[in-house]
Amino acid sequence: MKAGLRLAFNATALLSPLTGIGHYARSLAKELAASGELDLTYFYGFGWSKSLRDLPVANITSAKTTVKRFVPRAYDLNRYVQQRLFNFGVRRSRFDLYHDPNFLAFDFDGPTVITAHDLSWLHYPETHPAERVQAMNRRLPRALERSAQVITDAESVRAEIVETYRVAPDRVTAVPLAARAVFRPYSAADCAGALAAHGLEWRRFVLCVGTLEPRKNLELALRAYSALPMALRERMPLVIAGMKGWLTSLLDSLITPLVNSGRARTVGYVDDAALAALYASARMLIYPSLYEGFGLPPLEAMASGTPVIVSDVSSLPEVVGDAGIQVDPHDVDALRDAIRLLSEDDERWEALRSAGLARAAQFSWERCARETLAVYQKVLA
Predict the structure, then answer these.
(1) Co-location of 170 and 211 in the same domain
(2) Domains held by the chain: number
(3) Does 193 share its domain with 328?
(4) 192 and 142 within one domain
(5) Per residue of the chain (381 residues), what is the pLDDT tens digit?
(6) Which of 200, 224, 310, 361 could form an SS bridge with 335, CB 3.0 to 4.6 Å?
(7) Domain range holding 308?
(8) Is the same domain home to 221 and 269?
(9) CB 252, CB 276: distance < 8 Å
(10) Is residue 149 domain-shared with residue 204, that is, in the same domain?
């Protein structure tokens, strides 16, 4: 690949508080820049920059909510305006290639690569806002058709896209993600401040991480935890970290009694340092998602030296392998029993801790960038 290849990179996912796609976009962009093989320019929705932003725009989530409430067809209007600003930057810079890391690429008169992370709105439309389902159904087929190459996070999603949208298999490549460097083992002393802030003790709590929305299946986690013996719940509270998403009324009704009884803590969206401390000091992470395109939290927990319990569906078995416990995402008893096992069986806990660290070490952002560069090379060849 020629040095200085001019790449347009859609970085609008970095403007909101970072969740899975935002972390992917930022981590990948940093490694691509570090490769020295690209001249990167980032599109931020309403302007272009040669710099990678470090922080999301303040209050952007509440601003988006307000606009959607009062502006008819706000998504389409926003997309129209951004396309015009995207075109302006493209005309000035004459990029060799455009990569959109978040499904829906802008129109670009040149080779385009997109990353399609999952097809969750097709499998579980009831777990998404209706306007998102409509937008994805309307726009993704065209985005796939216009793309020279499609990247997915896992082989399971690659197979789904090939089958569902009849995309030629040689146009879709699975490139796995990784845990960021901040997620690693820490000592009890390192985590003392974060634990004290939430009234927690080292290795004496069960952790859930993820946006509070139906697909994450926190309902199963709450029911399984509530079915544990009282003595175990008293010594091992449930901690839920993640920003509030959508369709959460049922979750609220299940969480509130646990919070009121002191058996659960909701800590909301936490920054990387606090999240790293929670991962490293939890007894386990439970992640019973109904469907994942990759599932970064289990990998981050394993990299932190914490055993994981995950669903046995979609991409999660690819990520966790034999290094974690897999359960049916509809089986309350199976999840309850797995939590109890890791709470009481120290030998099994230690074995999974070691296996998880070894498994997580197989993934890296350097590898993700290297394999993404290979996709670019394939397009330009």
Answers:
(1) no
(2) 2
(3) yes
(4) no
(5) 445 799 999 999 999 888 889 999 999 999 999 999 999 999 999 899 999 986 665 544 554 554 455 455 677 888 899 999 999 999 999 899 999 999 999 999 999 999 999 999 999 998 788 888 998 999 999 999 999 999 999 999 999 999 999 999 999 999 999 999 999 999 999 999 999 999 999 999 999 998 877 888 998 999 999 999 999 999 999 999 987 765 556 666 777 777 777 688 888 888 999 999 999 999 999 999 999 999 999 999 999 999 999 999 999 999 999 999 999 999 999 999 999 999 999 999 999 999 999 999 999 999 999 999 999 999 998
(6) 224
(7) 188-360
(8) yes
(9) no
(10) no
pTM listed for this prediction: 0.90
Strand order in the sheet with 149-152: 48-49, 38-43, 5-10, 97-100, 112-115, 149-152, 172-174
Tell me the one-letter amino acid at 311.
S
Residue 183 lies in a domain: no
For residue 47, what are its two tokens?
Answer: 């302007």
d(CA 192, CA 189): 5
